[in-house]
Amino acid sequence: MRFPLSWEVNMEKTTTTYRPTLKAIEAAAENLKGIASVTPLIKNARYSKQFGANIYFKREDLQEVRSYKIRGAYNKISSLNANQIENEIVCASAGNHAQGFALSCKLLKIKGTIFMPSPTPNQKIEQVKMFGEDYIKVVLIGDTFDDAYHAAMEQCEALNKTLIHPFNDEKVIEGQATVGLEIIDQAKAHPIDYVFVAVGGGGLAAGLSSVFKILSPQTRIISVEPKGAASMLTSIRNNKNTELKTIDSFVDGAAVKRVGDLNFAICKETLHRVVEVDEGKICQTILDLYNKDAIVVEPAGALSLSALDQFSEEIKGKNVVCVISGSNNDITRTAEIKERALLYANLKHYFIVKFPQRTGALRDFVVDILGPTDDITHFEYTKKANRENDVAVVGLQLKSPNDLEPLITKMKLHNFYGDYLNNKPDLFQFLV
């Protein structure tokens, strides 16, 4: 099976200023003993059967901070000298790096300030405060990681504080690389053909892929990022690190406008492919993992598994590792996760519906237009469009995607059809 060239990593030789050495990664592993857990590598029966392959989960969601980020954060902070920590330290994070930073501050008794985007799920904010206790201060600012990062940089420059970058840092990359070291050690009896790993800023992808390049170069590393924030894929295609103008911040653990320069230089040489996955597909994976495997993951934690469909033929009969990168999901996001999953599956649809100003119009819509398995999930009157019709935003959940066209046909035939909203960029503005 051949994939479009635009999806493949340009394998031209480039010169990097830095690549983690095996010695440095092994030193990081030694440094993290008793701090970061050696997480299990577990074969998943359901995914293995579905894809006709041996699918293993690397359970980084089982770390104390429920993500791999403790590895890089602690490895970096523990390397600081007295002068660097004298004026306290700072980080910017959408959540998981913040938790690793906070716990590291407490363990090392170092004061720190954490800048987080305002939309960060409350669950992550509370976890950060719990892990850091009196050693950390949380500042909510801006809409994205990049906004928080710029605020953190300003404070560092103004007050001479030390920035602990979540991904664009040698010690952080070496800490994250210990995930790859563990996988190789745990898989000695069954060498790994493929590793699927989420990519946001690129710290984990850069570190892990470097380890495999050294110790298991035949393993293909596939990095996966959300469609709404495909900064690594865009950079690979452009052959230079490229900042996105706008991003969808839903997959908060992987939503960055620009990957790290160090990370890009490494990943360009070490990754086999970089692919993107629709946020709706990610949401469906989250729900499936919870309902069928009793595993709770955050959106970024579901990225690696969400890409397997794209490789269904290629991975048959192969040994495949999917890194489950984190489980810091906020239960208050469940409704949106379900909504995005249904929209992606083409089972949830929103319309502007025109109701004639006559008695029984709504009853006629329900009886004559809707099918026996169609459910109204949202109904909200808006301003009148004209004197003949009232207008409503109506959400419908269908049993099958095939029910959509007959539904639209009946709505148009009976003059109820106003507009279809699913393909509108401002859809969720109608619903909130």
Give an account of the 3D structure:
The chain is of the alpha/beta class and 432 residues long. The chain has three domains: 5-68 and 172-337, Rossmann fold; 70-163, Rossmann fold; 346-431, Alpha-Beta Plaits, CATH 3.30.70. 40% of the residues lie in helices and 18% in strands. The chain has 17 helices and 14 strands. Strands 1-2-10-7-8-9 form a six-stranded mixed β-sheet, sandwiched between helices. Strand 12 and strand 13 form a beta hairpin.
Named CATH topology of the largest domain: Rossmann fold
Estimate the mean pLDDT confidence: 91
Query: Class of the largest domain, according to the CATH hierarchy?
Result: Alpha Beta
Strand content: 15-25%
Strands ordered across the widest β-sheet: 1-2-10-7-8-9
What is the gyration radius calculated from CA atoms?
Answer: 24 Å
Number of helices: 17
Structural class: alpha/beta
Q: Give start-end ranges of low-pLDDT stretches.
A: 1-7, 9-15
Q: Quick one: how many beta strands? A: 14
Q: How is the main sheet built?
A: 6 strands, mixed
Which architecture name of the largest domain does CATH use? 3-Layer(aba) Sandwich
Distance between the termini: 43 Å
What is the number of domains? 3
General form: globular
Helix coverage percent of residues? Answer: 25-40%
Structure, briefly:
The protein is 40% helix and 18% strand.
Q: What is the secondary structure topology, with strand pairs?
A:
Elements: H1 22-31, E1 41-43, H2 45-51, E2 54-59, H3 69-77, H4 82-85, E3 89-92, H5 96-108, E4 112-116, H6 122-132, E5 136-140, H7 145-159, E6 162-163, H8 170-186, E7 194-198, H9 203-215, E8 220-226, H10 231-238, H11 261-270, E9 273-277, H12 279-293, H13 303-306, E10 319-324, H14 334-344, E11 348-356, H15 361-369, E12 375-381, E13 389-397, H16 404-413, E14 417-420, H17 427-431
Parallel strand pairs: 2-10, 3-4, 3-6, 4-5, 7-8, 7-10, 8-9
Antiparallel strand pairs: 1-2, 11-13, 11-14, 12-13
